[in-house]
Amino acid sequence: xxxxxxxxxxxxxxxxxxxxxxxxxxxxxxxxxxxxxxxxxxxxxxxxxxxxxxxxxxxxxxxxxxxxxxxxxxxxxxxxxxxxxxxxxxxxxxxxxxxxxxxxxxxxxxxxxxxxxxxxxxxxxxxxxxxxxxxxxxxxxxxxxxxxxxxxxxxxxxxxxxxxxxxxxxxxxxxxxxxxxxxxxxxxxxxxxxxxxxxxxxxxxxxxxxxxxxxxxxxxxxxxxxxxxxxxxxxxxxxxxxxxxxxxxxxxxxxxxxxxxxxxxxxxxxxxxxxxxxxxxxxxxxxxxxxxxxxxxxxxxxxxxxxxxxxxxxxxxxxxxxxxxxxxxxxxxxxxxxxxxxxxxxxxxxxxxxxxxxxxxxxxxxxxxxxxxxxxxxxxxxxxxxxxxxxxxxxxxxxxxxxxxxxxxxxxxxxxxxxxxxxxxxxxxxxxxxxxxxxxxxxxxxxxxxxxxxxxxxxxxxxxxxxxxxxxxxxxxxxxxxxxxxxxxxxxxxxxxxxxxxxxxxxxxxxxxxxxxxxxxxxxxxxxxxxxxxxxxxxxxxxxxxxxxxxxxxxxxxxxxxxxxxxxxxxxxxxxxxxxxxxxxxxxxxxxxxxxxxxxxxxxxxxxxxxxxxxxxxxxxxxxxxxxxxxxxxxxx
Amino acid sequence: xxxxxxxxxxxxxxxxxxxxxxxxxxxxxxxxxxxxxxxxxxxxxxxxxxxxxxxxxxxxxxxxxxxxxxxxxxxxxxxxxxxxxxxxxxxxxxxxxxxxxxxxxxxxxxxxxxxxxxxxxxxxxxxxxxxxxxxxxxxxxxxxxxxxxxxxxxxxxxxxxxxxxxxxxxxxxxxxxxxxxxxxxxxxxxxxxxxxxxx
Amino acid sequence: xxxxxxxxxxxxxxxxxxxxxxxxxxxxxxxxxxxxxxxxxxxxxxxxxxxxxxxxxxxxxxxxxxxxxxxxxxxxxxxxxxxxxxxxxxxxxxxxxx
Lengths: 637, 199, 98
Description:
Number of helices of chain A: 20
Helix content of chain A: 55-70%
Oligomer: heterotrimer
Distance between the termini of chain A: 59 Å
Structural class of chain B: mainly alpha
Number of helices of chain B: 5
Strand order of the largest sheet of chain A: 1-2
Distance between the termini of chain B: 68 Å
Largest interface: A-B, 52 and 50 residues
Shape of chain B: elongated
Shape of chain A: globular
Strand content of chain B: under 5%
Order of helices and strands of chain A: HHHHHHHHHHHHHHHHHEHHEH
Strand content of chain A: under 5%
């Protein structure tokens, strides 16, 4: 099976190279995409990468469910199964959810705050290409050397040199490490963008809730990712330099790794869920045709969650033996964090109450999210009772819980966001009929797959086992669960079909505002021009675009806009090239080829110096070009 | 797409440069977290010597005290460089930057010497959890200093080429923040690793 | 950027830093206090010297409002304390479990 996949990958690569050469599109690729610093294009690249990774992670899931469908089946052997659950988890969280989240940050935030780009466009490109090449490095392990197989968090001593001597673990370490630098940089970038680049008059308490959610998420990112960087580096030091931080001998303590990795790991899940909450706030308000209920409490709850998320991490290892006092403290903090989340759920419901609801695709996913996530959150509270967790820990109860909050919360949220902002990015909506099929198969599939898993957990089935005995009685529920998984797969196929269908037959939206939206991104054409806003709007309150529209209805006079030259950053090849050097360094470090690692890191340094010496990095768009662009999309100057 | 004639540094206003300085402060805070995690690891593993060699046998007071004073002085001289910059005096600015980076090189040299001695006497990164933690945290700081030295050299060259402009001012401000930050981290290394190690 | 400072400020900072480096050294080498008090004093002086760097060298008080760098630093310090103290607390069981 692996050989078959390798062949498929090579053929696809060859196909892409052939098409690009045949259509003479290499220069175009370099000029328009590989060297771009435009947040909108970077966002689209993040999105495409994450959807490809969703495919791989999903295939991993289906393979696992196939293996578990029947007792004592050997569709996959144990080694292969371990590799698959490891890559499934790593890909879904780090190479699917994170980049999709960054896609939304990039595409939406500057538009919502009335800005022309992010605070550091060059750094933004660096972030994307570091993610891309980090993901490439991780994915390469499938083809060369062997995938990691110690779980998505790679606990030592299993992930140490003694028990995992091959390159799989190093691919894991460097793929995530390189990608992680990009994430940290994005965290800094978006905080500064939101704090310093808002349109005049847009105070913090006027910002759209999605933008607030991005701010809250980025605050967590900058405080959590350095811990991940350290933890992975320490594991590598043990492996490469024969250190003894996490080994069983030499005074090492593997549990310190678990402590450190979850210090990052818990905030990480809030990093991905907060933007989903932000997306829901936008959608609920827009499609209830009502201002969001409780804006202030929405803001405070997100900021509280972002700080509190940092104080709950031990609940991932209640059973490690830290003692009752430690467990009690962290059980309480874990329960506490459910409170601000509850506030948000009530606010969404109160927004819908007495609103004029439009059941568009984004709204469908939002309504499905609410019960799903609430149940998932409730099982989380069950898990947070430390003594009870001694029964639930690492059983299928846990597996069901985290999939429910991740899929019901994060994935549904990002799907809703995709449907909502797709017309802004590409100028056409995705087909409704196919969308309904996708929605129902995903939802039915989800419940059929994961509800039995709660029961399986109670029946004693532990996670990460590749098969089980006939007389455990787990067979029937596992079969049902597998059927559900395949339904979700069918849902994904419908979505892929929607995209292809839309490209061919999608109705062009020329208004830029297909949903009668409330926030500034809907005030510009779809897709937006390079510079976003020909004239930066002045903002007076929340729901800025709604206010502008209301005022335009009252005023009859046509506004004339005066244009001035727009200051924009130039494209650059350095982010791409530097990331290639990082890839080379990572590859060298993975196989312990020091010469290659030094070559790669020297290349990185050279790129940084080249950037430091670059003093000519921006330009101005002249007024007549702005006028021409605006005219061509029907906006009169 | 037509590109207008590029306008250079004259148009880089306070907002463009100021936003880069605050962004760098944010980066420094993330670096604090990085060192925090390393200190936590060190603190947890400091007594895990596997019944063997301890730090006390190897830490030499003259060595780490000199390193401390050299780094502290270099932090002071980087401040003098920034003062000259605000007075518009490019020669002392470049002069003090060169003094700073030379002191930085002395610091790194002393540290390498210290490591070589320790390895020679049998305390390597593989000796025990304690030593892995020690070498890791001290080298991370040393690597940061080394990167800073190369960075400072590159800025000195840019100053020679372009003089004091709003852009080079911002670059000097940022690297001096970085340099002071590294001295601040060293204060804790000095205290937690060395002083507590010889107690 | 208004963070100018003066020769006087830098020199005072430098001298105080030297003092705060020498005193803990003397305390440790001469075994002046009992272990816990010694630990507390040298750590306290390290924190003081850290603030000297922050105020006299890094000019954290200058800079335009809102002071996002100060807010970030405070939150960062809170998290660093959580990471270090939290880890020590959580991992102390290990000394019993050995």
